[in-house]
Amino acid sequence: MTAATGHHFARPGNRFWPVLHLSGFTPRLLKPTEQGELLAYGLGITNVVARATARADELSPEEYREGGRLLAAKVTRLRPRWLAVVGVTAYRAAFDDRKAQVGPQERLIGDTRVWVLPNPSGLNAHWTAATMAEEFGRLREAASSAA
Question: Considering the entire predicted model, what is its pTM?
């Protein structure tokens, strides 16, 4: 759906946009077509791997590693205070960190701190919108207190 629309997390029912709002990152529920408004809130959005797939398991380990390398280069260039990676499996594969868990990571990319968030896909059903919003909120609070 992202490839078809050009907007991140565009599949109906994807919980990313509601969770972003419930966690306090945005003052209202944004639609995928409004992703450009994230910059006004000090947020950016990108992909670890640019190739569109129906499921994350369609991506190869090599694609993840190359995506992690390219993302690290982008972070080094843009120097955000925080990088949030949505999906622990994607993070583990992209940054070769098999033991990573959801939450703050020890890894820094330059001066950028890294936080892994749960994947909002409906396939990740053991995370509810409420528990995801709590984790997203932990990142928001950490980023606010470090400002």
Answer: 0.90
